[in-house]
Amino acid sequence: MKKEIIKGYKVFTPDFKAKQGGYQYAENTEFTFDGKIQICASGFHFCTKAADCFNYYDFNPDNIVCQVEARGNTMGHDQDSKVCTDILFVGRKLSWLEVLDIVNIGKWNTGHSNTGNRNTGNWNTGNSNTGDWNTGDWNTGDWNTGNWNTGYRNTGNSNTGNRNTGNSNTGDWNTGNRNTGDSNTGYRSGGAFCVEENPMLILFDKLTNIPVREWEEHRAVELMKNLSPVIWVQEYVMTDDEKKQYPTYETIGGYYKSITMHEAWSNLWGNLDEDDKQVFITLPNFDADKFEHITGIKIVPVS
Predict the structure, then answer these.
(1) How far apart (Å, rounded) are the C-alpha atoms in residues 242 and 42?
(2) Which parts of the chain register pLDDT below 70?
(3) Which of 100, 139, 175, 222 has its CA 20 to 30 A from that of 45?
(4) Could you say which of 78, 102, 126 is where a domain stops?
């Protein structure tokens, strides 16, 4: 515990109270806590980074945001943006436009922690995104690193499915381009001019007797939902070049790094137990060479 002046921001409910405990605050007023302070337990709390305040309060313009200043004993500042103090001066109330300007580096954002423009979600670094954690442009889903994606976790361009690393895919987990065929009106067709609503699934380039709608409920599909072509890199392991490229790390404590599909599969595979690994190995038509080509995972036959 130490005594120092620390400036920051604090969010209040619309009636100028704390969300926890209901303490009544006021603008341009100093408050004193009579007791022992403890981070996340007792005393007055605030954040030195405005964006971090919204880890604890909804990003809602009805809430009140003020500049604050710790003037007494403090705890927590060395470890995190969150600070606890026994003497808190609540300064002036900020307009919502000021709040948006403080928490965002870009322009015309309605979310927070954005470094691009015209984002309505959070933590976007591209332009015209309406989802979250996008690093490309014109994305409407989440965690996209390419352009014009409407799904999520895509790293290519113009994908409308999910977790694609190629281009123009409308299915899921594709690493090539344009994988759903042409002029189809059916369901999840891979050819052309198909109208079947529940075609049989093709696995490893061979037809199976598994209907595609049954495949959607398969354990393998559930497991592949954990594939992600992005990983979270915390600030303390970021390189100097990464910090220059992703300046929002100071606000959100790190950045989302795009990885290859092979790396994503390696991360997934390393966290599977033997039973779940067998879910893939025992698929109809399983081909170890093709599986390695797609996933980077080498399956050694049991002798």
Answers:
(1) 37
(2) 1, 77-80, 107-108, 117-118, 120, 123, 127-128, 133, 137-138, 142-143, 147-148, 150, 153, 157-158, 160, 162-163, 167-170, 172-189, 192, 251, 302-303
(3) 100
(4) 102
- Report which of 96, 95, 8 is spatially closest to residue 59, judged by C-alpha positions: 96
d(CA 44, CA 32): 9
Say how many C-beta atoms besides its own lie within 10 A of residue 78's C-beta. Answer: 8
Residue 131 covered by a domain: no
For residue 27, give the nearest of 90, 87, 86 by alpha carbon: 90
Q: pLDDT tens across 105-161, in order?
A: 776 677 777 777 667 677 677 766 777 767 776 677 766 777 667 677 677 766 767
* Domain end (from 102, 130, 161): 102
| Residue at 178 is within a domain | no
Please name the residue that has the structure tokens 């790390």: 249
Domain range for 227: 208-295
Residue 224 contacts by C-beta under 8 Å, 6 or more apart in sequence?
A: 163, 172, 173, 268
Residue 117: φ, ψ to 5° = -125, 150
Tally of CB atoms within 10 A around 174: 24
Residue 277 lies in a domain: yes
Confirm whether pTM is higher than 0.70. no
